[in-house]
Amino acid sequence: MAIEILEVLPRNIRELIEKDIPLNQLQEIRLKVNKPLFIYSNNKEKKYEYKPSVETMKFILQKISSYSIYAFEDEIKQGYITIKGGHRVGICGTVVTEGNKVKTIKNIVSINIRVAKEIINCSQTIIPYILDKGEILNTIIISPPKCGKTTILRDVCRVISNGNYTLNLKGKNVSVIDERSEIAACFKGIPQMNVGERTDVLDSCPKSEGIIMAIRSMSPEIVICDEIGTYKDMDSIIAALNSGVKLITTIHGFDIDDLYKRPVFREVMENNVFDRAVVLSNRKGVGTIEYVYDFKKGKELGGILSG
């Protein structure tokens, strides 16, 4: 899928990548005006003497916006643009504000291109632990950055949406609230990642609003969202559960103690919102499953295979 990235790069950078790096290992390309080019592949960094110019940045921006940068203003003010294939192009430059809100970003001098990847069946170890007699349990995935939580969440979404008869799991109607366009990686509203055949996506929608919108408009059985953390998020989550909708979500953290330590989670914990927690790390590589926690029993579940 990284071929879409090559199409937006100048020839000299494209040739560097094609010469040095297998496309299936490409992870990230970081460009800064008058600074060395850095490319990350197979979890390793490589520094190049080539230094992008302002013209290089303009070329890339024109390519990713199909020569109509104004059409992407809503994305630009969030600091990124999603391109075909679901790849995310992060940008930095001069921020223009209006009424204490970001209006746009101009004079773009830093670009970070992150390759979108999906790993089919990476959630197969977890799925049996978030099921009870064929029904989904309210689950939170706890993970430090860059440990694969969004990749696993996406695959969980795919499995739940499609169903898995060996697990006695019928396909469910799923609504994804994809505030940062990372779960489904939509391009022009169409998911570029496989999130399942019964899944609807509210792309670039704030979680606190999207959860309620989805319940009212799409009648989901499951709502999936990434990185909850505000009081508004908590209010929407409780409203969803009161409507009979199940929830799977994530937070940044290291273990379940992070849920109890943060005041913002106090209400959801007091209301026993979650049935399971899946704790990830990169101790044995990205996506290591440290343990699954059963909130009702107040203990870790045994028999988990890390990976």
Automatic annotation (TrEMBL):
Top-level division of the source organism's lineage: Bacteria
Keywords: ATP-binding, Nucleotide-binding
Keyword Nucleotide-binding among UniProt keywords: yes
GO MF: ATP binding
Keyword Lipoprotein: no
Domain AAA+ ATPase: 135-275
Protein name: Stage III sporulation protein AA
UniProt organism field: Clostridium senegalense
Lineage, top ranks: Bacteria, Bacillati, Bacillota, Clostridia, Eubacteriales
